């Protein structure tokens, strides 16, 4: 597998673009994005688990029910959430306007919105600018860049990736862009993630690969403990790579002998790589964040326990604050593990901190060890740090990603609407 440039435009047959339509009246930045496939696509998606769902989520869930798609249209600056029937009408009008521009059905369109909750979406601005948006579409890195800019809100870093790998003897590509900086917590973060691939793959296999990837990536990401109303990840596959059609494990296991589809596993490995890379980018760009924090748990009795423990430590406000202050307060790590509701033995637990400046053990068998405070502070002062937790109870492992908690997080969210 090789990382390449181009984002969502790297796979064959995809175009993307973005324009400024005025949803963000005080900004000159683009705020309306589109991703289009010249051929019909298999499609899959996952959405927020918040009971309060934005109109865009509800419309996209309905449109994606059959596992096919051609186009994604997304706006930033307005979440179109908690806006009642008027908001639902606006989301449907977005889909209809995009569909009309390409003479396709509205059900072939996914709609996404991000921004302030509880404000009516000026959908007439979107309708007025759909043709300009269509004209902005390009099949290159610039098209990808324009679409990415148009979905960003409080993001300070661009988040994109593309990879190329072989299935059979055919080169296949996956490309992706995402936005996400705050209101990020497991069970889908405050994020819009759009993934394209030119792989030939049936919808059920695409859906399974996405769910597997999200479980070990986006659902292991936390910035501040909030899960938003608009979160979604959508993947479209148009088959232009010309590979042998990828099936999923369920279909190839219908006989008496269990067989693993190697092509499916190859595709899943690439999807995992893309989603984990985006997860790290979002954690690094957490609102006000200065550090990417990775929590690695090894030696757990089972994968479920490892996941619970890693997530609990990554989301702990006290651990995050200690990381900001470069304070080797390992007791906060064990405390977060203790309320995770995961089974583990504190007396068989070890903790170390690691970064580009080295690694230092601070806890062994649930107790402190003599360590150099100055060295620990140097390690924790780096922009990327790891919390390594060893349990000596089995072979299961898991990772979670987060960031430090800084003064700027409160500043950003204290005046978000302004």
Please state the CA-atom Rg, rounded to the nearest Å: 22 Å
Please count the beta strands (DSSP E, at least 2 residues each). 15
* Main beta-sheet annotation: 9 strands, mixed
Gap between N and C termini: 44 Å
User: What proportion strand?
Assistant: 25-35%
Mean pLDDT over all positions: 90
Number of helices: 12
- Given helix and strand content, the structural type is alpha+beta
Order of helices and strands: EEEHEHEHHEEEHEHHEHHHEEEHEEH
Q: Low-confidence parts, pLDDT < 50 over ≥5 residues?
A: 182-186
Q: How much helix is in the residues?
A: 25-40%
Coarse shape: globular
Quick overview of this protein structure:
With 418 residues, this protein is an alpha+beta fold.
């Amino acid at each position: 597998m090789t990382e390449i440039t181009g984002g969502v435009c790297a796979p064959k047959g995809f175009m993307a673009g973005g324009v400024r339509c005025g949803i963000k009246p005080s900004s000159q930045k683009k705020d309306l994005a589109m991703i289009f496939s010249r051929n019909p696509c298999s499609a899959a998606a996952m959405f927020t688990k918040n009971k309060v769902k934005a109109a865009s989520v509800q419309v996209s869930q309905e449109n994606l029910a059959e596992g096919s798609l051609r186009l994604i249209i997304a706006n930033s600056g307005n979440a179109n959430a908690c806006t009642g029937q008027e908001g639902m009408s606006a989301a449907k009008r977005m889909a209809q306007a995009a569909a009309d521009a390409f003479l396709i059905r509205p059900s072939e369109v996914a709609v996404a919105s991000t921004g302030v909750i509880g404000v009516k979406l000026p959908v007439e601005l979107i309708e007025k600018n759909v043709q300009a948006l269509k004209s902005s579409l390009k099949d290159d890195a610039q098209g990808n860049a324009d679409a990415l800019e148009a979905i960003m809100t409080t993001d300070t870093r661009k988040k994109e990736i593309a990879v190329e790998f072989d299935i059979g003897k055919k080169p296949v590509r996956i490309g992706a862009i995402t936005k996400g900086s705050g209101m990020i917590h497991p069970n889908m973060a405050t994020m819009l993630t759009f993934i394209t691939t030119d792989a030939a793959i049936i919808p059920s296999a695409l859906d399974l690969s996405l769910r597997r990837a999200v479980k070990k990536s986006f659902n292991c990401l936390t910035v501040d403990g909030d899960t938003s109303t608009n979160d979604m990840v959508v993947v479209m596959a148009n088959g232009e790579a010309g590979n042998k059609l990828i099936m999923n494990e369920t279909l190839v296991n219908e006989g008496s002998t269990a067989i693993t589809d190697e092509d499916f596993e190859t595709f899943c490995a690439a999807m995992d790589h893309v989603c984990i890379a985006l997860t790290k980018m979002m954690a690094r760009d957490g609102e006000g964040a200065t550090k990417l924090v990775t929590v690695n748990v090894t030696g757990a009795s089972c994968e479920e326990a490892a996941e619970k423990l890693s997530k609990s430590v990554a989301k702990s406000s006290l651990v995050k604050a200690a990381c900001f202050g470069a304070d080797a307060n390992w007791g906060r790590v064990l405390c977060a593990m203790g309320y995770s509701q995961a089974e583990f033995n504190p007396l068989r637990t070890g903790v170390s901190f690691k970064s580009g400046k080295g690694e230092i053990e601070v806890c062994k068998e649930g107790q402190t060890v003599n360590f150099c405070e100055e060295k620990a502070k140097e390690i924790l002062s780096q922009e990327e740090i790891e919390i390594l937790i060893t349990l000596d109870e089995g072979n299961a492992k898991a990772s979670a990603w987060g960031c430090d908690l800084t003064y700027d997080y409160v500043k950003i969210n204290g005046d978000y609407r302004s």
